Amino acid sequence: MWRSLDDGLLQVFLEADLPRVACGEHGVVIAKVPWARHGAGHTIAFDEVVAWFALGAPKTLISTLLRINWHTVGAILARVMAGRDGQDGDRLGSVRRIGIDEVSFKKGQRYLTIVVDHDTGLLLYVAEGRSKDSVRGFFDRLGAERSGQVTHVSADGAGWIALVLAERAPQAKVCLDPFHVVKWATDALDVVRRQVWNDARHAGMTGVARSLKDSRYALWKNPEDLTGRQRAKLAMIQDTNKPLYRAYLLKEQLRAVFKPGGAGRIRLLDAWLAWACRSKLRPFVELSRTIRAHRAEIAHALAYKLTNARIESMNQKIRLLIRRAYGFRSVPALTAMIRLCLAGYARPLPGRT
Q1: How high is the pLDDT of residue 353?
Q2: CATH code for the domain in which residue 114 is found
Q3: 62 — alpha (psi -120 to 50), left (phi > 0) or beta?
Q4: Nearest in space to 215 (alpha carbons), one of 202, 203, 204, 200
Q5: What single-letter DSSP state applies at residue 57?
Q6: Does a structural domain hold residue 47?
Q7: In angstroms, rounded to a whole number, what is the distance separating the alpha carbons of residues 48 and 40?
Q8: Same domain as 123, residue 22
Q9: Residue 217: is its pLDDT beyond 60?
């Protein structure tokens, strides 16, 4: 049955008598039909059209174009992706090198745990939370046999990731992401800068304190990216504040450890650790202890040249999806959108080959 709308379009109604079945386990249920998923208010073909549009269009555009509610788009995506969970078996069979990280998706410390395949660049898993349970969920899906085939894992050194890896994939070489190691050094440098600034301020050296307060970016940025003014600021620190300049050199030397060069650069890391221990800068002495505790994971990252760069790129794509959709109120709808767009499930527009 159909009728014409005012704008010249045709509205089609599909009517069918659906038999009700009395099941001893589930009670009275409606028989399954070939053109719609169970409990859905739309046909499978319509759901697939919505999913196809969602690959590149905002939810508001889809809801306007297809004449459905904004929230219905998310519900349809969740329904479509739930039907594709069975496809994970083939996708996970060849997993060998993975990266694990978390990404914030909402204010109030709301996070998603993601797992990415380093070899294909595809998203393998996404779940709400950043905890041992969220990581275990991936290995539960992977299974014990395939977990035993994982050879390398890149991560940021978080304890909740390391503990699960030791349980589920103890044979895997864990590679600590160099970006996070250098960030630890940048944080230690900033602690030294604040300490020096506070010492100058309490000593009545207001001019020195003021110059140090404005030196943050000159100390943080890579030397090749400094402006002329920032280079002058750094030269002033070199002449007037040896401890702070020593902290800056420690940060830069640690960054140099992770330049291309392979496993041999672990000797440079050992030399850096010795220097940091003798630096008499408490933040860097503590940092050297932290790095020593993760020396094996850093050595693996240097030897196998595996970083979390691909995972960070995936995080940026996830943030773009969230902004494109103007946020998500439903976590299942959000994870469905992420999996649809980034996990390699894309299919052609229904009705076309």
Answers
A1: 59
A2: 3.30.420.10
A3: alpha
A4: 200
A5: S
A6: yes
A7: 13
A8: no
A9: yes
